[in-house]
Structures are given as C-alpha cells and as structure tokens.
Amino acid sequence: MTNVKTIAAGWEPSRVSALRDVMSAMKLDALVIPRWDEQQFEYVSLANERLAWTTGFTGSWGLSIVTHDDVILFIDGRYPEQAARETNSDWVTLQHLYEEPPEDWISQHAQAGWRVGFDSEVVTPDLYDRLQKVCEQKAALMQPTASDTFDQCWLDRPETPSSEVIQLSAEWAGESVAEKLARVREQMRLAGVAWLVETQPDNVNWLLNIRGQDLPYCPVVRARLLIGLKGEIHLFGDVADSDAEALASADTTIRCHARDQFLNTLEHAIQPADCLWVDPTQGPQCGRQMAETVGGGALTNRSPITDLKARKNDTELTALRSACLSDSAVWVRLLHWLESAVHSEVVTELGVEERIHQFRTEVDDYTAPSFRTISAADGNASLAHYSAPADGGATLKPSTLFLLDSGGQFSRGGTTDTTRTWCFQKPTSEHRRLATCVLKAHIAVAQQVFPVGTLGHALDSAARLPMWQAKLDYDHGTGHGVGHYLSVHEFPQRMQKSGTTVGLEAGMTLTVEPGFYRADEFGIRHENLCEVVCCGDGWLRLESMAFVPFNRHLIDAEMLTPVEQAWVDEYHRQVYARVSPMLDNDELVAWLEAATQPLTGHRS
Amino acid sequence: MTNVKTIAAGWEPSRVSALRDVMSAMKLDALVIPRWDEQQFEYVSLANERLAWTTGFTGSWGLSIVTHDDVILFIDGRYPEQAARETNSDWVTLQHLYEEPPEDWISQHAQAGWRVGFDSEVVTPDLYDRLQKVCEQKAALMQPTASDTFDQCWLDRPETPSSEVIQLSAEWAGESVAEKLARVREQMRLAGVAWLVETQPDNVNWLLNIRGQDLPYCPVVRARLLIGLKGEIHLFGDVADSDAEALASADTTIRCHARDQFLNTLEHAIQPADCLWVDPTQGPQCGRQMAETVGGGALTNRSPITDLKARKNDTELTALRSACLSDSAVWVRLLHWLESAVHSEVVTELGVEERIHQFRTEVDDYTAPSFRTISAADGNASLAHYSAPADGGATLKPSTLFLLDSGGQFSRGGTTDTTRTWCFQKPTSEHRRLATCVLKAHIAVAQQVFPVGTLGHALDSAARLPMWQAKLDYDHGTGHGVGHYLSVHEFPQRMQKSGTTVGLEAGMTLTVEPGFYRADEFGIRHENLCEVVCCGDGWLRLESMAFVPFNRHLIDAEMLTPVEQAWVDEYHRQVYARVSPMLDNDELVAWLEAATQPLTGHRS
Description:
- The structure is a homodimer.
- The first copy, chain A, is built from 19 helices and 28 strands.
- The first copy, chain A, is α+β, with helices and mostly antiparallel strands.
- In chain A, the strands form eight sheets. Chain A has a six-stranded mixed β-sheet with strand order 4-3-2-1-5-6, with helices on both faces.
- In chain A, helix 14 packs across helix 15 and helix 16 packs antiparallel against helix 17.
C-alpha cells in the first residue's frame, strides 16, 4: 500500500535534480514547498505529499526552500530527531521553523534579482507577507508558479482520491445547512464582505453537513468553497456527478466545479467593489491577490466558520459524549487485556496499537483511528509523536512504563482522543511521584472554575503551576480542540503557554493532557477529552467526556490534597457507573471495579 | 498652583471653537490628540496636557478626535466614570479606546477627501498604521501638522519646565554610561540599525545616569535621544548650558540640542542606506517617516533600552530593597497612627494621604510621591485610580474598610508602591472572607516557582485561579514593573490576563496586587513590590521587597491551607525582624509585634 512513508522511503537525490530542472525551466532561483496543500490543512492527500517526496520528511508540519544549491527543511520542536533520521544530511539542511524561520533564511541568502517561486493556492497570506517583506528588502521577486510544479518531475505521483460524499441529515448535525449558512452570512454581512474563501476541509464539511474519506484520520471530502453573501455557493473538488446533483438540490444550492476551477471562478465572481474574506494562516494568498487584482479588497481574519464550528450544539455534544463512552469501554477492554498479556505473551507496541483498533472495530459506528496511535514503551514515550515501526517496535516488559495515546472516529458523530500511562508491576517511587505530579496538573485543570471568555493560556497555567512548584514542566500545549466526527485537532480554542486570544465558551471541546518526559527513559501523560460547561451565570468549567481509569498504582495518594483525592475518587466512581453496564463479561466488570476503587479504603 | 485639574477645570466650549478655527486655517477636517506628548510617556508636562485642555478629561491615558462637528474622547476601562464627570456631554462623546478604537470611528465617519491632522512627533507608528489603513480605505489623507497646533489657540499655555540635570555616579547606578551604551549598541549592531530613536524619559535618564524634576511623580529630565551606532549621541531637551557642558564632557560625548531640533537633526543624520530603530508603541511616527523619506528603512521593535533597563543590576536591587524597607517603616508608623486616630479624631482620606507623605519626608532621601496616593474609604475604594478630593473626601469611621495604595521616590535609588486594606473594628464576615480570598491570590503568586522566561500572563493566572474557584475576579492586571528611582509603571514585564510576550528574568521587579471590588461598597487589594530571584538552575520565584503587615483581623486562618498559613507567618516574622530595628519608640515596636503575630498561637 502506498502511504507517505513509502513516498519518503523512495527518496533519492535524483528527485531534487528533477525538481531543479523544472525550476530552471521556470527561471526560478528558489521554490517554497510547504507540507500543507491548497486546503491549508494538517492532513493532505498522498498526491500532495510534496514535502515528503522532496525531502524524505514525513512529519505533519514543516516547509522547505529548494534552491539550485540547497534544500532547507524548516521543522518545529516536535521533529528534530525524526527529520534527522528521515533526511539525507548531504542534501537536506534542517532549521527551526519558528526560531530560524524561512523569511530569515531568505533575508540571509537571497540575491538581488532572485525569483522565489511559490504556489499561491498553497501559500497563506501570512506566509506570503513574511516572505514578500524580505524579498522586497533584497530586491528579490516572489513569483507565483502558474501550475503545480510537481506534475513535471514527480512521475509516479499517486492519484488524488475522490471519495463518495456522505450526506448528513440535520437531525444528525443538529442544524441544517441553511441555518449554518445564515449564521456564516450574518458574520460576512457584519464584516462587510461579499465573498468568503473557505479551504479548511473540516470547516467545509461541517458547513455542508457532509463527510467523506479523502484523507487519513479525518473523515472529510476534500473540497474548497467560495461563499457569496447572497446566491450560490461554489464548491471545488473531485465530486461525482450524482453527489453534485444531490448538493445542488439541497435546501441550499451548491454548484460543484472541478478542483482546478477555483481561481478562474473567483476571478469572475469578484466585482471591483467587493471585499473577500480570507483566513490569514488557513487560507490561500491567491484569494487575497485576486481580490486586489480585480480592484476589490481582502479581509484577512480568521474564518467565521472556524468560530461557529467550535461551539458545539446539543446534538453534536450528545454524539461526542456517546462516542467517548463507547471508546472508554474499548479502553477498559484494552487495559484489562494488556495487564494480563504483558505477563503471558509477547506484546509489542504495534501489537497494542492493532489490538485497540481491533477492539474499536467491534463498536458498530467506528470507522478509523482519529490519528496514528502513539503506543510507546519506556524511552520511546519521551519522543513527541512516536509511532511504532512496522517491525512491531519495543516489546512490553512487566517493568515497562507504557504510554498509550489513541482515539477513533465514530460515524454517529464522535472523535476521541485519550492517553493513559500504565505500569504492570509495582512502579518505582520516582515514576509514581512524577505520574502523581502530572495527575495533579490534570486535576487542577479539570476542577478549575473560570469566567466566560477566559483565554486558553490561563487554563494552561492551571496545569503547569503545580508542576512548576515541583520544578517540572513539559514542552507541549495542555490541550487542543476536537471535532464532531471531524479533525482531532480543531481550532481556534487551545490551552498553551504562549498567549491565546480566543475566549472559551460553553460547548467548546478541549483535551486536557499535561505530561512529563525524560529523554530516553520514559514519558507520562494523562489525557481526557472534555467539554466546556456552564456552572453559574458567567462561569464555566470542564467536564470530562472520557471515562477511563487512571492507573491507581501510579498515584501516590499522600501527595494529593483532600480535594484532589475526592476528584479522583469521584471520577473513578463515574467511570465504573458509566462503563460497567457496557461491558459484556463479569471478569471485565470485576477488573474495572478493582481499578476504580477509592484511593484510600473501599467503596461501600 | 497650576496643575492638570486647573487646566481641565477651566474648560469651556470656546476652547473647542478656537481649536476648530486653527484646524480650518490648516484645512483639517479632523485632528488626532493623544494624551501623551512627543515623549510617548504616561506623564506629561503641564504645557502638553492638550487632552485635558481640549476635553476637560484628566485621566492618564486616552485620545481625542476633534472634527468640526464632534469631539470624541476615547478612554479605557479605568475611566468611564471619571470621564463622564469631567467632560461636558453636550460637547464631548465618550468611546472605549480598545473596544471602539479611533480607527473604527474614522472608518465609520471619515469622508473621501478628509484631511486628518496629527502631530507626527507625538503619534506612534502603531497608531499611525491603524489610522492610515482606514484613511486609505476611505480615501482620506493623514496630514502631519507642521508645528504644534495648540500654540495658536491655547493662549495661557504653561511654560515647559526645565529642571536641573542631576548626574549620578556609576557607583550609584551600578554601571557607567559607557557600559550601558556599549550594550545598547550591541543590540543595535545585531539588529543591523545605524540609529536608534529613544523618547521614553525613563529610558533616556537610565541610559545617561541622570535624573531630574521635569515631570510629576517620575524624577526625570524630559529629553529625547538620537543614538548612532558609532560616534555622538544627540540629546533634545531644554538643558541649561552648564548641564550640556557636563554631558558633553562625560566619558561618552552627548551633544545637546534644543527640543525642537529633533526632526531637523534626524534628517541630516540618517543616510540613505541607514536603518532607524523606532519603538512602535512608545516611539514617534516621524522617525519612521523620516527614515523612509531619506531612503533608509525603519525597524519597529521595542526599544532595546526598555529591555536592558528591566533587568536591574545588583546596585539597583540593593537600593530598591533599601528604599522599600525605609518605606515599610513609614507604613508601620502610618498604620499604627491610623488605627488609633480613626477612633479619636477626624481622619479624612486626604488627611491620610498627607500624613503618609509627612512621615516619608522624615526619610532623608525621600523626594516625592511615586504616584498620586489612593486613600479610599469604603465605596471609594471600588473606583480604579480614585484620588481624594481637595475638601478631604470621606471621613474614616471605625466601621470603614479602608484601602491605601501609596509609594514614594527615594533619591538613593528607590521607587516604592504598596497597598494595604485595613479595618478598625471586627470586620464583617464577608469582608474577612473576601480579603482572605485576595490574600490567597497574593500568596499564590508570591510562593510560585516558575521557569526562566515564563510569560507574565502565567503568573497573572496564579493569582486569579484560586479567586475564580470562589467565582471572584478583578478587572485589572496582577502586577507591573517598577523603576529604580524612575517610573512606578515600568515596561515591558507585566502580569496581566491577556497574552504577554516578555519572558521573566532574574532582576526584574514586579508588583503583586490582586484585588476584589464591589461597586459603591468597598475595594480590597494587597500589594507588595517584588523582585524576580533565581531558585535553582533555570527556575525563578518572587521575593518581596516590601515588609508591611497584612491586617490580621481580615485574615480567616481557617480558609488558608497549611502552606498559605506558613507563608503569612514567615512573611510577618520577616516584617518584624526587618522593620522593628528601624522604629524609634517602644510603642511602635509593640504595635508591630502584635500586628505580626502568627495566625494561630504566639511566636515563641
């Protein structure tokens, strides 16, 4: 099966030479190649794995600048080890995406007269502005490439997928397309724009109440939209005629075009007085450019759909809760199996990943993993975004400290994401102390009351402050949004160290996932998916939708305050009450009962 | 005595008419009038109180747009009540400075062809960009005014002060001007700029190791600098010839010019290839404009001096600690006097303000208040930035909940800022509960360990999270920087709700001042000035420099955790140990001993 690893594994220098030949023909001195494609999304189709083809790097985010002398790969803090392993250092030079960003490289290396090629359907307005500013300083030129440069050098390029469009009823989505569209258009009216470009696949699928299978992990149809304040909606994608007919006859008329008709249609749609709304970091520069070319203006603000989608309606929340509960029962089965299997059979990291997938397939609406499972023993768990290799990876031993971060897509409306850290014999006191510290951080967020509109960084602090007190920290965010049978990484809500600007509101979903990592030794993370709920006028708190026991052997009850102990006991009481009715055998129920006993004493 | 209140109190509509006549002569449709002047500073000289003269508003921050039909006054969340009281609503319309900012007003009201006047030495690049963007959209023109518009209509304008320059020795400052300048020029070199414009008076005075008396509350010489990467430094201000000679003969040559020679000198200094460094929010638009006009470029980043000044050296910290300790003894005298006086004489809010000033004058290096003291009884304490009126204000009763926020300037190198909330009889249980909640917030910050580079919003959260848990909050930041015998509000370090980007480092100073306010009833705030200190490799915490007892009657020990109780007891132990040797009579010592007893039991 072709996947991104196959594309990357086939890397050889001739690819760079072939690309440079194309660049020469186009008179380009440099070419900017982001990981993302014209959808500006975390997931891309195989045909658009341009970065993996060019450099061999398979991470989810990054960017390359290729010149006739250099291939620079810009990666973030998650990927230095993986990028070093996957790329050939004779050919590819690594740089930090944020600390030594592409614009700095251009500023240092571009010569006067350089032509820096970029695909204006792919590059975002924000990236364009940063590059354009330094190009101007260096008297270099940002040169849009007329068509996809890679068609001419990537000869065995995979086909672009074209999956069936799955129509969702309003009952399932909780809101009709017409109602959603009215809310989007109200935001457009308030902003004074005539058109909105929407390229994020999850936003497009949410708005149109559709789903698909075009991308790994995220159940969407790859399509872009051009939404007028009035009249038609234009959709650009590889949609079958029958699907196009269905979309055109829905209560809101959607006109389907071929994927490559985007710019052409935009050019004819925008009138000189029109303002076009383009997302600055998740939209295409070509949109803004076109609006300016025809004499209109561009509004570069976050897409209104991103914000509307973030506040889940009751139907969506009910479905999410249900999927999380189904998945919690899967987790209980997995942990029960694992505790025994580690002592009796050869269990590899890949084996655990396959087993949880297998258990999930017995849930009738499970469709696929929501991300590549991180099944990581001991030191492997200290690597961000580790995935078990094809040979199975490490074998779990009784002494292993094991981290499992896994989730599924459920077609009745759920996307899940849970992490548990497990031990299989009496843990070391250090593992126990650290796991308890991380649990204190988790509880701090889970029980925190906060005012409506609180910014995500404040809740990130809630997790980190008790860990800092013990001089511990972790180098990732505390939580991210999660979609309704959509992307497991959803914007704009976030809990992170650096400043956020999005106020939290009831109905948003967020993971809570503090951790602690010691390189080459172990990783600890405790993650639940939560919803933001009201708790009195103007006040909010989080409520977990996942009900999976925390490993009691890794909790030092003496380190917990009475309030923290009570939180753990009440959470475990709920785990047992909610999940035990879903288990089909007494042994599992007995296991869960034992796993959810109060920390001190026994439940009466 | 003329002060800003006198200028504001003399407001009459004829001022606006006179200003409009000048605008007509200059063919202006609108004029932008910020509170700040060409120094972009919180404090301005009386001659530059243009906003108070035009509108009657005396707040420390704000901006007006005057047209031939309207006077719009933009104010922030601290000032709606004060602005409504001070301005005539027939003439002046109030708008929120951040929620309905000036650019929105321009966007809604400007007509094509409008000429919007602004003083380009006063308006910052950031404000200019925001206004310019909407003016361009509306086909209006941003029109720099050639000279100070107010000279032609403000006929009884006060003189610009010109105080003596006080030279500080390197021993006193802890670093010579040459050493400071070398560090500034290293930053300039790294940034690739040939010139730096510095207009912040505290930055100028810090760099040149000088002080003065040109402004209220902040002991500085009003002057601006143009610093070359090499060679001379140009100073623009009203400096006496003898002072200019002294500056010119110092180890670093400083050439003094008249205040109005700034633009002219800049024009001749910058060469076409030069890049000029201008602070975007605390620097002048004219600098950037001039750099671009002569063919150079401008770097709009925060001034490097702001960052260098923020990290205090050992000499500065020693002086600050010493001033805080002297001031703590003043506070103890004040609180001792107050507790008795409230029951035996008529004590007004203004009387307390005068009394603490009088006690401070007995400290030999005290020069002036570091800000207008907030002496506020009961409901008055719920007003942000209340100041007692000339008639004395409220009389303190035994039942009063009293808030005193006061600080001084000490010429051996200290600026202080402390707040205490006090009661004079058994407090209500509600006052006690709320004062204890605020104390918990204070302790949370005071005892928090955090990694080097932590952003200020994380410590703001440390204060707020325990208050949120009780569904309480406060509408101001948790802390601000404080200078070394300079401004009591120092940048860039801050603890605030919204995202910050400045990492905290050892040697920075910050107030810790959570509060709780109930409109018309009371205000509670507990404030200490702290320094950031190392506590292990890569870890920091705060250490209080102020040693003033918290009112024990307002602390409900049962609401405190053992750790919080221990913090209070240890703080009070230090208050007694450090301050009692400074007290000159036994009654005071006995009072302090009682005021600093452990919360439960007695100190052995």
